[in-house]
Structure formats: structure tokens, C-alpha cells
């Protein structure tokens, strides 16, 4: 400080910053952040899964099917407790909802973001498996280049699904959430072929244009109805006999 008196306060700042700054291991902070994010991810998975089950339990189609399965298995025939006392009406209703929810959970294959929670989708597990995932990805790319770019082999079913999903801009979870019928519909369009994909996009653009035109016409009609105070009515005075 004697050599550079003009930097005295700067040297004081450097001293106190190093003397009193909290000494926390950065690795612990990063690890805590990863664990917190993974915990929130797991809670979010269970929330989405339970919301999907609740929706299916209220949907008339799935509810009727689940009730048929429950009646066939005799799950709704229980009217008494183990001690012989009868269930109340509220208890029977709660038990029926629980049984239907269990049947739906057992019979319906939920996929995509609403699939059953899995530890493999958590951030901490993905980071642990990152070297293995990178190795798999490298081998997959190598096989793709060798099979389809160099040897020019025809696409197999897995390659067709990958190209279709990629052209549609869908992740694997979104593709799985479509269901077999919608997936088969997209595969029948052969979107992995550039010409077919271009034709599909043109057709889709035309559909969206027609829908937008119909929507704007409907909005104009609603504004007209609101302005005139209701739809036009035909009175008997205007009818010639």
C-alpha cells in the first residue's frame, strides 16, 4: 500500500472480501440444486399422472369401461366391512371411485408426459447415465450414417418412426402420447419421404386457412347478431298465402 497509496481502498476491499466471504464448496451447491430440481421433477411427474387418472375416471367412456371390468371382477359387490357392518352411502361412493381409479390405472397405458413416474426421467439420474447415453447416441448415429447414407439401405420401421416424429417436431414423449391409432395415421402418410411431407404440409396449410376463414366468418356473424339484437325471425305478417 505504501508503494501505491492510491490503491489503498482497493487493497482493503480485497482483504475483507477474502477474509469474510462465505467459504462454501461449489460442488455442494451444484449438487443441492440438482437434487432440488430432481425432487420437483418427481413431484411434477406424480401430479401429471394423478391429474390424468382423475380425468380418465371422470370421462364417461373410460368410466363405463372401468365399471364393467370392476363388476365382472366383483370389486363393486362388496357392501359390508370386515366386521359385518354396512358401508354408508358416502363410503360406498368413495370406494367406487377408488375402485374405478385402480382399474383405470391397471388397464390404461398412459404415455408421454402423463406416464407413470419414473426415476430414469429425473435430472440426477440422467446426469449419472450421461456417459452411457452419449455412447448410445454415438453408436446410433454411426449406424445411421453407415446404413442409410453410405449403404443407402431402405428405412426400417424404427427409422420411419424417427423421421416422422422429427418432421412433425415431436419429442419421444409427445409421440408416445399420441396413441397407436394416431401414430399409425401419421405413418400411413409416409412423411419420411420429402415429397409426401411437402404435400402433407401444403394440405395442412390449406386446412388451417379454411378453418381461419370459417372462424372469422363465424365471428362476423356473431357480431352481427349481437348488433341487431338476435337472429332474424320470420313473422306471419311477411308471408303471402
Describe the structure in your own words.
With 241 residues, the chain is mainly alpha-helical. Among the domains are: 9-117, no CATH class; 124-153. 68% of the residues lie in helices and 0% in strands. The chain contains ten helices and no strands. It has helices at 8-20, 26-58, 60-72, 89-107, 123-128, 130-150, 157-167, 172-176, 180-188, 194-228. Helix 2 packs across helix 4 (89-107) and helix 3 packs across helix 4. The chain is extended and about 90 Å long. The protein starts with 7 loop residues before the first helix and ends in a 13-residue tail after the last helix. The model is unreliable at 232-241 (pLDDT under 50). The chain crosses the membrane at residues 26-43. InterPro entries: DNAJC25-like (IPR044632). This is DnaJ subfamily C member 25.
Could you report the average pLDDT, rounded to the nearest whole number?
Answer: 84
What percent of residues adopt helix (DSSP H or I)?
A: 55-70%
Structural class estimated from helices and strands = mainly alpha
Strand content: under 5%
Largest sheet: none
Number of helices: 10
Question: Cα distance, first to last residue?
Answer: 113 Å
Low-confidence stretches: 232-241
- Output the helix-strand order: HHHHHHHHHH
Q: How many E-type strands?
A: 0
Overall geometric form = extended
Rg = 31 Å
SSE blueprint and pairings:
Elements (H helix, E strand, L loop, with lengths): L7 H13 L5 H33 L1 H13 L16 H19 L15 H6 L1 H21 L6 H11 L4 H5 L3 H9 L5 H35 L13
Helix pairs in contact: 2-4, 3-4
Amino acid at each position: 500500500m505504501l508503494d501505491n497509496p492510491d490503491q489503498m481502498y482497493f487493497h482493503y476491499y480485497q482483504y475483507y472480501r477474502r477474509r469474510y466471504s462465505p467459504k462454501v464448496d461449489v460442488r455442494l451447491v451444484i449438487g443441492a440444486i440438482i437434487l432440488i430440481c430432481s425432487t420437483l421433477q418427481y413431484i411434477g411427474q406424480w401430479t401429471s399422472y394423478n391429474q390424468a387418472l382423475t380425468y380418465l375416471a371422470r370421462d364417461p367412456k373410460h368410466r363405463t369401461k372401468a365399471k364393467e371390468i370392476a363388476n365382472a371382477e366383483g370389486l363393486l359387490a362388496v357392501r359390508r366391512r370386515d366386521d359385518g357392518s354396512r358401508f354408508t352411502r358416502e363410503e360406498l361412493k368413495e370406494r367406487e371411485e377408488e375402485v374405478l381409479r385402480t382399474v383405470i390405472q391397471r388397464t390404461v397405458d398412459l404415455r408421454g408426459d402423463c406416464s407413470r413416474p419414473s426415476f430414469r426421467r429425473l435430472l440426477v439420474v440422467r446426469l449419472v447415465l450421461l456417459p452411457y447415453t452419449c455412447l448410445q447416441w454415438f453408436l446410433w448415429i454411426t449406424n445411421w450414417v453407415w446404413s442409410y447414407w453410405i449403404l443407402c439401405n431402405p428405412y426400417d420401421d424404427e427409422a420411419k418412426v424417427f423421421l416422422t416424429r422429427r418432421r412433425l417436431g415431436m419429442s419421444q414423449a409427445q409421440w408416445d402420447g399420441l396413441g397407436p391409432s394416431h401414430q399409425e395415421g401419421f405413418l400411413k402418410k409416409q412423411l419420411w419421404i420429402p415429397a409426401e411431407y411437402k404435400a402433407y404440409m401444403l394440405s395442412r396449410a390449406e386446412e388451417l386457412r379454411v378453418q381461419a376463414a370459417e372462424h372469422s366468418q363465424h365471428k362476423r356473424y356473431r357480431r352481427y347478431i349481437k348488433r341487431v339484437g338476435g337472429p332474424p325471425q320470420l313473422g306471419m305478417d311477411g308471408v303471402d298465402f
